[in-house]
Each structure stands twice: as structure tokens, then as C-alpha cells.
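FAQ

Q: What does a record look like?
A: Structure on top, sequence underneath. For example:
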């Protein structure tokens, strides 16, 4: 007599537990909530052995092979797969890397971001100060400037992006988990005088970065998008591309600038890997979240946002991105209701757009700001990826499959 298959009920129970753990992880009220996160994840993960044992006991003329169920259960989209990945990140951020690597092996990962990278926020305070300057080589693919935004600039930008229930986020049905579709807007550089505060901010960026990237003078459009995410979330490794790379020809911006409006969450990771690279990145640089900081990166390189540490501080990681393009296709029009990539900047009375185009305000730096004195060094990394023994991923092994690289996301 065949044993009833209760996998669906078990999956629902695990899903409810997983959702509770994830909610506590992203929005904990007390330290006790954080302790409960690990307890719940371990409870779900520990049940995998009983799942495999149950499969072995199934009777009938053609019982499924023991590995069939476990492979499905450990799929990255399954509750068990998500649980294992979350538990592995939790362990790495708690400096229990060997235990995490055992889990990642069971999930069929080949390598991961280095433990130093995934634990980078632990040491972030040493990198959010620009008082120590070691003179980074000029060929690194990013630049960092502290205090680029004045208090007045920050207050105005936070009036647009600071509240997750403000018009910018609500108009686009913005969500982090599950992620909402990507949306961005284009500002023509020849018309910056018509964009008030936002136009003056873009002018300041261009002026500051022209020495590093003289080709900025050849750009025609600036693409704008933003994020407002819980501090413990991140964004996967990616290249900035026109229309998210869906076109037959992949094009990158000349430069992408990140403006940090809050100081929480994981750092930005910039690597030396490009779309055409035959080998994975062997060098990287970290720029930690700091209020008013600006990080500019070569638009061709692989980068990401690392997940921050879970914290009872409910402040969210809020950033504004502005990418300079030599050419990019404008999609849709300013009246189109569907959000998407590279839309024309709205000219109607949407609150967020009106605030950004405020004609009576101009972006100004702090009175004592200097591009020389306030230039900060990103934190250098001697390697980016490691195998599941904690050793640097050998260049001779080539590029691993994207899905086989654990990013903590």
C-alpha cells in the first residue's frame, strides 16, 4: 500500500515558516526576533533528511528514485532551496563560514562571493571615513566622493524618495520582495535648464567627473532610477545595459553614479569583470553606504549591492542612480502608465516628478566641499570569488555558470 504523498502540505507549512523568518529578518523589532530567524531556518533545513527518508519508504511498482524529490526540494526557487541559501548567508555573516559552505555544496553551488565580501558590512565603519587616503591607482573602475550632497540636497531628495509610501514608489507599485519590474526615466542633457533641481544635480555630477571621464561631454541622455530597500537585502551581480539587455545589441552607459541618501545596508561591490571577459573578476572594490556619498563606476563593469546585516534599525537603504549615455532609445512617452526602462521623463503633475524639477531649487555642495579633499578610496579586494573551501576561485577554472555562484541574494 502506497504511503500518501503529503509533499504539498509539507511545502505549505515550510513556506509559512520561511515567510515568518524572512519577515523577522528584514524588519526585526528586538534581538529576540533575530535569534528566532536562525531557529526557524534551521528547523526547516533539518527536515530535509526526513523528506529523503520518506521518499525511500514509498511503495508501489515504480517508486521514484531517492534523489528525484531531493533535487526538486533543493531547487533555488523551492522553499527548501531558499531556506538553505538564507541560512548559508546568515552563517557567513555570523562568521561560521565552514558550516555555510557545507550547505552550499548540498545546494550544488560551485563557488561564492568571498566571505570578506559577504561580511563586508561588519567592517564598514573603517571605510565610510575619507580621512585616510592611500592613493588608489587611476585605472580602477570607480570613484568615490564623500559629502557630495549637501544637507539641503539630502532633504529635498528624501522628500521624494525617503518615504516608501510616497508618490514615486506608489505610482510604480514598487516592491523589493518579490521585486517589481525595473523602471527608469531619461533626462536629455541638452535640456537640463528645464529640469530645475535635478538638472543642476546632473550638471554637478558631470563637472565633478569630467576629468576622470572626458567622454562625458559626448553623452546625450541621463537615465534615472532609484531603490528603497530593507537594509538586509541586496541586488544581484549585473551589468547596466540599455533595456536590461533585451535588445540584440548589448549597450552599456559610459558611467553610472550612485547617490546614497541613508547610511544603512550593504556596500556596493564594483569588479573589473566586463561582458566580454573570458575569466571572472579577480579584483573588486567596495563603497559603503554613507549619507551624501557619491560613487561613480565605469558603466561596463559587473557590480552589485551586497546584503546588509540584519538589524533592529528600521532605516532603509535608499539610493538614487544616474547613468550617462552617449546614445539610448527613449521608450514610451511621458503619458504612458506602464512603468518600464528608459521612459520619457513625465511632464505632467505627478508629485515626484514635479518635486525633482522644482525650478526654484538648485543642487549645491557643502560650502567647504572639495573634489580633492572629499575624494575617498573605495575598499580594495584582492579577490572577489572563492570556492567552497574558502580559497580564491582559480582564474584557470574560467567563468562559472551564473546560477552556480552564491551571491547571498
Amino acid at each position: 500500500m502506497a504511503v500518501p504523498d503529503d509533499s504539498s502540505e509539507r511545502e505549505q507549512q515550510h513556506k509559512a515558516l520561511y515567510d515568518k523568518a524572512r519577515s523577522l529578518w528584514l524588519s526585526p523589532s528586538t534581538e529576540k526576533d533575530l535569534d528566532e530567524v536562525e531557529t526557524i531556518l534551521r528547523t526547516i533545513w533539518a527536515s530535509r533528511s526526513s523528506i529523503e527518508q520518506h521518499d525511500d519508504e514509498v511503495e508501489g511498482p515504480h517508486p521514484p528514485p531517492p534523489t528525484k524529490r531531493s533535487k526538486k526540494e533543493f531547487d533555488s526557487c523551492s522553499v527548501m532551496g531558499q531556506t538553505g541559501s538564507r541560512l548559508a548567508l546568515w552563517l557567513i555573516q555570523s562568521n561560521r563560514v565552514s558550516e555555510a559552505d557545507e550547505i552550499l555544496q548540498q545546494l550544488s553551488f560551485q563557488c561564492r562571493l568571498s566571505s570578506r565580501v559577504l561580511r563586508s558590512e561588519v567592517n564598514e565603519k573603517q571605510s565610510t571615513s575619507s580621512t585616510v587616503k592611500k592613493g588608489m591607482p587611476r585605472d580602477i573602475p570607480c570613484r568615490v566622493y564623500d559629502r557630495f550632497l549637501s544637507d539641503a540636497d539630502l532633504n529635498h531628495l528624501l522628500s521624494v524618495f525617503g518615504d516608501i509610501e510616497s508618490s514615486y514608489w506608489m505610482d510604480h507599485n514598487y516592491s523589493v520582495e518579490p521585486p517589481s519590474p525595473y523602471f527608469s526615466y531619461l533626462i536629455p542633457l541638452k535640456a537640463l535648464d528645464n529640469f530645475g533641481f535635478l538638472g543642476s544635480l546632473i550638471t554637478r555630477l558631470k563637472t565633478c567627473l569630467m576629468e576622470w571621464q572626458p567622454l562625458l561631454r559626448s553623452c546625450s541622455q541621463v537615465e534615472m532610477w532609484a531603490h528603497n530597500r530593507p537594509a538586509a537585502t541586496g541586488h544581484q551581480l549585473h551589468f547596466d545595459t540599455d533595456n536590461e539587455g533585451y535588445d540584440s545589441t548589448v549597450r552599456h552607459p559610459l558611467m553610472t553614479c550612485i547617490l546614497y541618501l541613508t547610511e544603512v545596508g550593504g556596500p556596493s561591490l564594483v569588479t573589473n569583470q566586463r561582458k566580454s571577459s573570458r575569466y571572472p573578476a579577480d579584483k573588486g572594490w567596495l563603497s559603503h553606504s554613507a549619507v551624501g556619498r557619491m560613487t561613480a563606476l565605469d558603466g561596463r563593469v559587473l557590480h552589485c549591492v551586497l546584503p546588509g546585516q540584519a538589524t533592529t534599525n528600521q532605516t532603509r537603504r535608499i539610493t538614487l542612480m544616474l547613468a550617462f549615455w552617449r546614445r539610448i532609445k527613449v521608450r514610451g512617452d511621458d503619458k504612458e502608465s506602464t512603468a518600464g526602462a528608459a521612459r520619457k521623463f513625465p511632464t505632467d503633475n505627478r508629485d515626484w516628478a514635479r518635486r525633482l524639477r522644482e525650478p526654484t531649487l538648485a543642487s549645491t555642495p557643502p560650502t567647504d566641499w572639495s573634489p580633492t579633499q572629499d575624494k575617498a578610496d573605495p575598499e580594495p579586494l584582492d579577490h572577489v570569488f572563492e570556492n567552497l573551501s574558502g580559497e580564491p576561485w582559480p582564474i584557470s577554472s574560467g567563468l562559472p555558470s551564473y546560477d552556480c555562484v552564491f551571491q547571498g541574494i
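Q: Is there anything notable about this one?
A: Residues 53-72, 125-132 have pLDDT under 50 and may be disordered.
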